[in-house]
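Q: How would the structure tokens look for this protein?
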Amino acid sequence: MIDVGTGYSCGLAQSDLDSLLQDVRYSLRQLKDSPGFSITAVLSLALGIAATTAVFSVIYAVVMNPYPYRASDRMVHMRLRNRSGQEGDLSLTPSQWEELRHSPVVEDSFLYSAGSLTLTGRDLPETVTAGYMSSNGFQYLGVPPVLGRGLIPADAVQPRVVVLGYKFWQRRFNGNSGVVGETVLLTHKNYTIIGVASPRFTWTDADVYMPLDFAAGHENTYAVDLRLRPGISHAAANAALRPLIGQFAKQTPNNFPQEHFEFTVAGLNDDFMRRLGGTLALLFSAVGLLLAVGCGNISILLLARGASRYYEFAMRSAVGASRGRIVRQLLTESIVLSLTGAGLGILLAFWLLDAIVRMLPENSFPHEAAIHINLPVLAFSVAAALLTGILFGLWPAIALSRPDLSAIIQTGTRKIAGRLGARAANNTLIAAQIALTLLMLAGAGTAVRGFVSMMHTPLGYDPHNVMAVAMPIQAEAYNTWARRSAYFEEMRRKVAEVHGVTMTAVSETATPPASGWFTRVEFQGRKAIDDQKIAIGFVGHTYFQLLRIPLTQGRIWDASENRTAARLAVVNQTLARRYFPNGDAIGHSAKIPELVEQPPFVLDGPGTDGSWFRIIGVVADKRNNGMRDAMLPEVYLPFTLSMDVSTQILVRSEVPPLTLLHTIGAKINTIDPEQPLNRDVRDLEHLITSQPEWQEERLVAWLFGAFALLGLALAVVGLYSVVSYTVTQRNAEFGIRMALGAQRVQVLGMVYRSAAVSLSCGIAAGIVLTLALSKVVAHWTNGASGDPMILVGVTLLLALVAAVACAVPARRAFLMDPVAALRD
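A: Here is the predicted structure in token form.
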């Protein structure tokens, strides 16, 4: 009994498998025999799958799996937030850090900081970014190195060891696997290489990682990262740690802001999600709409093709085929189409993903994120293909699985006129496609308009043929104010001697379009309006002339005043209007409470601390807060008043400035052979296009526009298919009408009227959708909400393209031979 039952079950399973294979073979023959239908359907789905797969690859890497670190979902940064909602990083001393580690909500924590070193041995010295970590840093992050080992507690005793960053190892050592144990000379000190970090280990984007040397100063402060215990929410962590942070603020008040602040923790990905999350959601919505339009095409094509096979299904039913058997055959054909489209779509996705990655804002996503098409993404693509094949193939399959045998018998022909139900289904699908396409076109129009508007944003300065050359110095080499100020001025003078350079200027914190330091400013005799921070620019006296920023009132300090660190200030028009509405800014004084000397890293001019700076001029506004946000109040001071260990020299030239970079480096080396230039030197025009908001707008405009145009093409194909199918099914009707005296123009009107209903319904639905979602789209595309001109423009475009799509089948009806139609 058991053997018989088992054999019977196996026989059924084998029979089902044979039947399925037969369906697959028959489906492949059908696709081969209808190349036009097959190519159109496969391409429709492939485009949708390619776009969806590429965008999902970015979402998976940036949102779902951005970090390789151990329990990264429980890792948090520590932040201080002021009344305006602005957040700043929190630094602690080693003793405070040790106390923090014993908090009941903290599982583990480590300290880190960043700095720069000089690597020599090439044509020109090279700046190396150093990431300093407490000795438990590598253990905390939990990413094994590709070579050697990471930092361990014993390295704190012998700190002359270094772990190479992966990219630095590839660039500087050509990926040599025997590098462990060798030494590297960094700023006159030999360091032993003990390992090479993993490719995705990019903490602080350092070139090399070194142990923190606490012996150098127990009161120095460092950035802190911590991992919460399992089950501890951010709110619970805030409540538990705020009293402790308040205690630290009383212990070391100089390490905390003077104004009111609130402690908070932030997840590793929170900042990136604020910057890019909405953009990714918008793009994923766009590709979802594109996929829906493509799937609508498949349904339309399957319905049209199924109607032409109505006789076949009737004969199958007549000889005993069940409705389920017919549905399974049609679903098999739909799934074969979907998988074929998915395969082609995945191949296209590799190319599209490369294009998207190149356009992603460089600092708006974690550099640890590995953006590529991996197994989870492939699984998503296959699942999406199967789901679309089943969902969009099921409707035509059910609609065609009940053939009307009486109609076959009465007509005695293999051609059956299209049924009203099939026509209604086609009209509904095409109306939905038109509505979704109109929504995509309107969104793309808003995105493009927002990007064009940003491209034409007034800058307030002239960036053409100007570059910013960062020149980090070693604090120990120029550790007095006199030596450092003289060296900075000598560097500027040497650069000015290079042939092709027309002007130079020092800019420590005011290189547009974004300034580097925002702090609180007091104005003598004026009450504070609010706690808004003001941009501070430490610049040379030639800065305004080089950038061609007009002086609107008063004067600029001169070379001698710059050399002696005169306590003078120039303000921009926004500050003058805000704090001196009567136009009397000149002659008033300002003070910067947080301007405190921090030797040897920050050296202030004589008598700078606590001094009042007299305002002597007002200049026109220039971009100092990025390309999207309103310009902020700004105070300019002579750079000699406060000099950091790194400065920038602005260079205006007669030729593209980057071509002079090597010559400038060689010129600088004549006064200090070990003075490096920062590797990432850009001209000011490229600094504009590298702003996160610029790149986000460009990404949305290009991709949303491309997806919208693809959606338009797919919708046009769908409309063409419906009209062509309708004309074919009504050949006999048109022939009879013309035989009875109907004019060809009337037949042409009938064709257009049949398409006009679904077109007008789709446009109406699309307008409603666009108006309903206009604020959401405009928010993420920096465009005008519900701009009527964009809506009218895309509606006319869609109507025009739809009319062209209908023209070919309509012309076929117009030129129809009534005798041939009747005979057929």
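The two ends are 61 Å apart (CA to CA).

Residues 460 and 622 are 4 Å apart (CA to CA).

Upvote if useful.
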